[in-house]
Amino acid sequence: MFPRLQIKSSASALHLDASPLTLQHFSSLPKAKWSNIQISGNGKSFALGDLFNISSGPSQTLVFSGDLSKTHYIGCHWQSEELIVEGDAGSFLGEFMSGGRILVKGNAGHHVSCCQKAGTIIVQGNVGDYAAGASMRSRIGMRGGLLIVEGHCGKWLAMRMRRGTVVIHGQTAAAVATDMLAGTLILCGAVEKPISCGMRRGTIVFSSALQRPKEIPEDGQLWLFNEVLDRQGKQISRVGGFTSPDAVELSMLPLLFSEIGAHLPDTWRPYSSRVYRSLGDRSVSGYGELIWLFPKSQ
Fold this sequence. Notes:
Elements (H helix, E strand, L loop, with lengths): L2 E5 L8 E2 L5 H5 L10 E4 L2 E4 H4 E5 L4 E5 L5 E2 L9 E5 L11 E7 L13 E6 L19 E7 L13 E6 L15 E4 L15 E4 L21 E2 L5 E2 L9 E4 L2 H9 L13 E7 L7 E5 L6
Parallel strand pairs: 1-6, 2-7, 6-8, 8-9, 9-10, 10-11, 11-12, 12-13, 13-14, 14-19
Antiparallel strand pairs: 1-5, 3-4, 15-16, 17-18, 18-19
């Protein structure tokens, strides 16, 4: 039996570090001492019982509830079993996660799934910037596992991502896959440019009509990255691009969709294995690929 933690209204305004709250920590202590676990917030140390109402929860599942939008590092170094957030979660959800499953029944903040190694994270709402990317504690982003976002995603998705799979149901903001090293992104909604600046390897799959090749200029380049944003939102100049898209057959698509098909919107199926593909980023001698899907009827 593991706890259900309901944040008190008086604590929801504090910026809390929830990284000590793991199944391993709770299982190592008798239930009577759970309330004495120390967590930090706003530069101070608090006893868990002063911030949360603690009750018995499901077996092998840690449950958070309430307004946790300022509670950060939930599921940090999560290793196994299940974590459920009944509401919004703060930033750094699932950082360095190495197994198990995290489900958020709301929105999540910035740096979701950063440096994730394995396991599955599902966010039923929106996520902020830098999802599946690098963090302040590592220059390498997501290294494995699966991230599903059923809402929209902020800027800088998959920056320096090395491995793993990300599925975004809604819209994705600018600077996706910046300096991406490898991995797979499946972007179901509209995607704001610029895209894939400095991408070295990996795959991005689109289906939104806003990114169809028919809207790409026939100048031998997919995009010129002359309006790339730096981290302060200022425009900088960086010339690069991708090859003009070609129609090809990709036999790997049925295998990919068989593995994650349950996490895709119903509007995505069925799709043909014949796609448009573009390669780049040529400014860094990259071999990443951008793929556009279209229904079998087309």
